[in-house]
Amino acid sequence: xxxxxxxxxxxxxxxxxLSAVLFVIGVLGFLIRKNALTVFMSxxxxxxxxxxxxxxxARQLGHxxxxxxxxxxxxxxxxxxxxxxxxxxxxxxxRHSVDIDDVSWLRG
Length: 108
Fold this sequence. Notes:
This protein is mostly helical. It has three helices and no strands. The relative contact order is 0.12.
């Protein structure tokens, strides 16, 4: 007896639900955590969740606009990673901590 065939496509709603869950996890990590690296990763998670929703909408509508926009968001995220990690490393070298409460001297 042959196995039943499974659908080969996933509904766009599943991608959007996953994107919403990832975005909420990123927001919670951004608001709750005190470690600068964890906050930084939470922002990246939120950006990737938005990218997933762009791709899901582009696929559903049959346009490439969302996928092209994702490349621009990824370029901005890469620049953010370079600058953000440099700032975090500099703060760690001077204060020996990456706790957000310890960098209140930056407000100045």
